[in-house]
Amino acid sequence: MNFVSLHFAIFLGVVLAGFYCLPDRWRTHLLLAASYFFYGYWSVKYLMLLVLTMLIDFFFAQFIADARTERGRKSFLVGSLILNLGILFIFKYFNFVMDMIFEVTHHRLAVSSLILPFGISFYTFHSISYVVDVYRRVIPAERKFVPYSAYVMFFPQLVAGPIARASHLLHQFEEPKRFRPEQWSKGLWLIGCGYFMKTVLADNLAPAVDLFLGQHAGDVVARTPLDVAQGIYFFAFQIYFDFAGYTSIAIGVAKLFDYELVKNFDRPYISQSITEFWRRWHISLSTWLRDYLYIGLGGNRHGRLKTYRNLMLTMLLGGLWHGANITFVVWGGLHGGYLVIERLLRGNPAAHALCRKIPGPIRILVTFHLACLAWIFFRMPDLHSALETVRYFATWLSNPFGHTQAAGVQRYLWALIFGWLGFEILEARLNLRDRFVTLPIGGQIVTAYSVVTAILLLAQTNPQAFIYFQF
């Protein structure tokens, strides 16, 4: 069920009404039932797969907690990881492996292709983090299935995150909830911002991205360097507005039920380094990769070379997590390379001091363009198209004022982008969300009416699916 749909609006209204009419002891049951319906609305078959994953980790976590020896604990952890990652591999990477076999042998095996279940990467990471935290004794094993399954399936964050840790979210399903006007005001503010980012910004940018970068392999060769450069910049903002918009709606909806989800974005395009970028972009994934993969590989505990190796492996696997395509691996590899280079520079006092002398705006500009270079591989359907796009982008960067405007500069879209970035800066400096909460009800209604009117006037008539639904 898409957040940007009438069906979801009706669904949310019904669930909210039921939630606040029921006594506390039944509210988690209602949320769980609503989450089953929310996911089953897409596919009952894959709902069963989700339930299977939950059952595996629910019982394996208890096996780990009850094991009397460290060897037994580790065996149950490994068993859980094999089953989780095995299911993820079958549904997400099986077709990729079959294609690789065909490329090598030119013989396609008579095996049916599998459809990727919505949100499988996200709920798998939820489950893995829970089991690993039980193994590390960060949290106790949950003995009651209802709160555990509500944690995994909580519908606002089920399909595209943010990836919530059990230590943060699980206990909230066993705490009493009440209607709190300030939570509703904050939630409605976040939902309004999220809908604006998605329907007005991301969805208006999508056709321009398709125009300038093409929708299929090889399309880019029909564009000029200026068109390609605009397409790359537009995609960088499209994916930010799309995903940050989804997250804002998810966090806002959770607040309506008096639940707190983790922050997932913090104005990433003002970052002055790629390290800072990953502290601001998809925060729940970057911290997950750090805590469960990078540290699991050894982190920075075994010398510089192994630290660099662990950084690169973490980002390569983070890229592969996004999809079964060599372009995602290259995207992750580029970010891994950036992080390794930054570590090398920080380890050299003279180089680090020189970098610190570079003005902040220039560091922001360089970081943004490094991210844009990586976004090319994330966006394009195959390696050949990505490399062609890099060539066009480099041609434009070498002489940005010397190329014809085949499709023209999209001034309206640039106005929307810079208008929103200005709003984000203003929101951070003036704390607009908290100011909105303190407004009298009349002021809140006027503000909400203005936002809804702006969305209706500026939103794309053909809404696009959220980009991260495919992961």
Architecture overview:
The protein is mainly alpha-helical. The model has no long low-confidence stretch (mean pLDDT 86). It has helices at 6-21, 24-40, 44-66, 70-92, 94-105, 120-135, 145-153, 155-158, 166-169, 181-213, 225-256, 274-280, 283-297, 304-322, 326-347, 349-356, 360-379, 383-398, 411-430, 432-438, 441-458. The chain contains 21 helices and no strands. It is globular. The longest helix is centred in the middle third of the chain and has 33 residues, at 181-213. It folds into two domains: 6-177, no CATH class; 183-470, no CATH class.
Summarize this structure briefly:
By secondary structure, the chain is mainly alpha-helical. The protein has helices at residues 6-21, 24-40, 44-66, 70-92, 94-105, 120-135, 145-153, 155-158, 166-169, 181-213, 225-256, 274-280, 283-297, 304-322, 326-347, 349-356, 360-379, 383-398, 411-430, 432-438, 441-458.
